[in-house]
Amino acid sequence: MTVWRVLPFFVLASLMVSGCGSNDVPRSAAQAKQARDQTVIASAEVVGQQSFPVLARTQLIPGLNAVLEATIPSPPRDTYGLVRVGLLLPLTGPAADVGQSLLNAAQMALFDVGDERFVLQPYDTRGTPRGAALAAALAVAHGAQLLLGPVFSASAKAVAPQARAAGINMVPFTTDPSVAAPGVFVIGFLAHEQVRRIISFSRAQGIERFAVLAPATPYGETVVDAMSQLIPATGAVLTRVAYYDPSGENLNDVVRSLADYDSRHNALLVQRAELESRSDAVSRVALRRLERLDTIGEVPYDAILIPAKGGRLIEVAALLPFYDIDPGRVQLLGTMVWHTPGLGKEPALVGGWYPAPSPQGNASFYSRYRKLYDATPPAIATHGYDAIALAAVLGRTPSNEPFSSDSLASPSGFSGVDGVFRLLPTGLSERGLAVLEITRDGSEPIDPAPVTFEATQF
C-alpha cells in the first residue's frame, strides 16, 4: 500500500512507498518484481532508419541493463485503465551518460511513487532533434498521455509540434526559456529564476547598484537580459554590463575597462602631482598614503554578477583585485554554475553569493543514488526524479485528463528533490532556491530556501 495521495501542495521527495523511507535503499529487483507483480513487455519499433526500445507496463528495476526482445505492440491509451507517460532521453550517442542518469533517477521515483496503473515508456532520442522527433512519434503512437523530456533545447523544439498536434503536454528538461510555451513546461533550472533569487537577497542586504561581467554566449546574454528585466522593479539600478570573449582572449581588457582602471589610475597620478607640489606636513602624509595605491575613486557599482564557471570564473575573479576592484567592497555574485567544489581556493571568490537548491534538501537523493548505482549523479538527474514523481502523483487523480495544463500548472506548486517549484501557464517555471556563500572549504547556506510559494515572494 502506498502513502501517496493528492494534496493541495504535492510532496514529491519525502513521501515513499510504505516500508521504504526517504533514506532507505529500494528493495532488490526480485522483491520489487514480486511486490509489483508486473512484467516487462518490450518491443523494438523501427521508424525510418531509427530503432527505439520501448518499455511498457513495467516497474523499472534498478540494475535492469537490457530490454527483452519481443514484437508485442503497446496497447492503445487507457487500455486496462493504465496511465502512460513517455520518457524521451538520449540513451545512446555523446550524451548517453546524461540520459542514463535521468533514467536511473526516474527508476528511483517510479519505485518510490508509482502504482500498478502507472506505465513509464522510455524512448531513445539519440541526442538529436530528429531522434527526438521519431521517439516522440513512437510515444504518441503507443498512447502516451504526457511526454517527459527531451533534454536538449533543439530536441524539445522538434518535439513540441507533435505534442501539440496530439493534444498532450510535455515537460522537457532543458534550461532554455525559449522552449517554454503553453503546454510545454520547462522544469530545468532557469537563469531568470536564479537571477531573481540573488537580486532579491542582495537588495535585502542593501545593495543598490549592480554590474554584470558575462561571457558573450547565449547563456551570458540570457543572464544579462534577466538582470535588465528584474533590477528596475526592485528600485536598484544596473550601472554596467560588460561582455568578454568566451575564449578569454580579451578578458584583461574587459576587466580593466569595467574597473575604470585607467581613469582612476590617472586620477591618482594627478593627485600625487598636486601633493608633491606642496611642502606642508599634511600633504606629505597624504602623499605617503597614496604611494600604496594604484588608483583612487570608487567603481560605480556595489556588486558584480559573474555567470561563469570553473577555471574561467577563477581567472575572472583573480583579475578583479589586480585592476583594483576590491571584493571586500564590491560583492561578487554568481548563478548556479558556481555550485561546484574548490572555488574557495581563489581568495577573491571567498564570500561570494550564489543561488542553489538547499544542500540539506537533496542530500538524501544523492546518497540513495550513489548506493544504488555506485556513481555520483549530475545535477540534472534530480529533474528525472521530480518529473516522474510529479507524473505519478497526478496520474492518481480521478480525472480523464490527469496531465492537463491546469493540473501541471498548480499555483501551489510541488515539493521535489531540489525544493519547491511550480510550472507556470506560460511554460516557464519558478523555484525556491537557497543562497549560499563561498568559503575557503566549500560553501554554506546563508539564506534558506522557501518551503512554499504562498509564504515567500522572490
Shape: elongated
> Average pLDDT value?
82
Secondary-structure-based class equals alpha/beta
Q: What is the total tally of β strands? A: 17
Topology readout:
Blueprint: E1 10-11, H1 29-36, E2 41-47, E3 50-56, E4 83-89, H2 96-113, E5 118-124, H3 129-141, E6 146-148, H4 153-166, E7 169-171, H5 191-204, E8 209-215, H6 218-230, E9 237-244, H7 251-258, H8 261-276, H9 281-290, E10 303-305, H10 310-322, E11 331-333, E12 353-356, H11 359-373, H12 381-394, H13 405-408, E13 414-416, E14 419-423, E15 429-431, E16 434-439, E17 442-447
Parallel strand pairs: 1-13, 4-5, 4-6, 6-7, 8-9, 8-10, 10-11
Antiparallel strand pairs: 2-3, 12-16, 13-14, 14-15, 16-17
Helix pairs in contact: 2-12, 3-4, 5-6, 8-9
